[in-house]
Amino acid sequence: MQRRSIIGTSLAVVVAMGLAACGGGEDSGGSKTVRVTLVNHVWTENVKKALPEFEKQTGLKVEVTQLGEDQLSDQYNVKLNAGSSDLDVMMYRPLQEGKQFGKNKYLADLTERSKSDSAFDFSDFQAAPVQATTYDDKVVGVPIITESEVLYYRKDLLKKSGFDAPPKSLDELKAQAAKVEADNPGVAGFVSRTGKAAAVTQFSSFLFSFGGDFVDANGKAAVNTEQAKQAYAYYGGLLREHGPNNVSTDMSWSEAMAIFTQGKAAFYTEANSLYKNATDPAKSKVSDTVGFAPFPAGPAGSKPYNIPSWALGINDQSKNKDNAWKFIQWAAGKEQSLAQQEAGVPGARASVWANPQAIATYPKDLAEATTASTANGVGHDRPLVVKVAQAREIVGQPIVDAITGKDPSASADAANEAFQKFLDDEAK
Question: Are 221 and 423 in contact (CB under 8 A)?
Fold first, then answer.
């Protein structure tokens, strides 16, 4: 790994204030320098600006290494596999690396620290993101940035077709998509991701809302249950029957979003974190007519994913865990979480979504849709495995088959067999 060039090109940042302490970590016996590895993200930029405040309060120095996502993963693979202790705090993706990190015992157990700290108030964190940062019933991470799936829609098109409210159920979504499409030639009723792997995360909310999941309670493959087959058929059928003409089966969010923002679709299911692409007049031709609604209910209710896209953990090999925890206390504490929320970074604390000041910069209906997602949200949007990319390819195949008119039931059976073999191989 080209560590020197990576750190050089990825803006490795060293912040060393060296100010006098009030409670500067003497109890830990660890270094007064906390080494923190963060990803390139708005959250990181906000934290860096506020670091002098933390250092003044604690007398600690914070050394920040900031990397792109791929570089971050490369660095973790090299250093954690080698048992390195020169990482203290790690910003990581619970749904991408969490299973691997937990299985390999890379992350320190934070259960006692998090739950015995009344000022930190771990109970304020939403249940679904906490589920994703828990491994073997141990808290191994603190969620800091969340995403949930919501329904984007065109207010003007619904009004034109006589609808005074967006769909509350998946049945209503299909009916409204068909009517709006019929009333507006050249406009698709619905668009969403279609790529085999890319679509899995957005399809997950459909799967959960039909009562299914990727695995069952015993950890066995479950993508061929009756509920899963219904979800595949619905999602693929909606795109086949009411999606864009000659719909591609290789669309990720950027292609699907482009269709919606160019005014070529009435409904679009997507992560709430991408909303500015639809509301920014510089990016969207329909910015003044976009509305947001909670994910429509299926037979099992409305069960969108509500996930932590990023979390903070402590390297289990760190010799500076006490001071590393002090950084997490501050960076994921109520004050910083509020500041991040006000800056447009969706947080994992329930209190920031309940605070009118914290959501004042969000579209009102988006904030309401997101709040609804936290009530029954599911803490994952993909299979919870070590080799996530490979698993997504397997469980995403029936999505493509359903879109192209193949039998989704037979495809789900084939995918389930392949997925179970994958799970068996990974368990060896």
Answer: yes
Are 188 and 288 part of one and the same domain? Answer: yes
Examine the domain organization and report whether 72 and 118 are in the same domain: yes
Print the domain residue range for 298.
148-305+381-427
Q: Which of the four pLDDT bands, split at 50, 70 and 90, describes residue 24?
A: very low
**Per-residue confidence band for 375, with pLDDT thresholds at 50, 70 and 90:** confident
Q: What is the pLDDT of residues 253-303, one digit of tens each?
A: 999 999 999 999 999 999 999 999 999 999 999 999 999 999 999 999 999
Q: Is the predicted pLDDT of residue 157 greater than 90, yes or no?
A: yes
Find, among 121, 143, 114, 149, the residue nearest to 130 by Cα.
143
Say whether both 259 and 273 belong to one domain. yes
CATH label of the domain that carries residue 8: 3.40.190.10
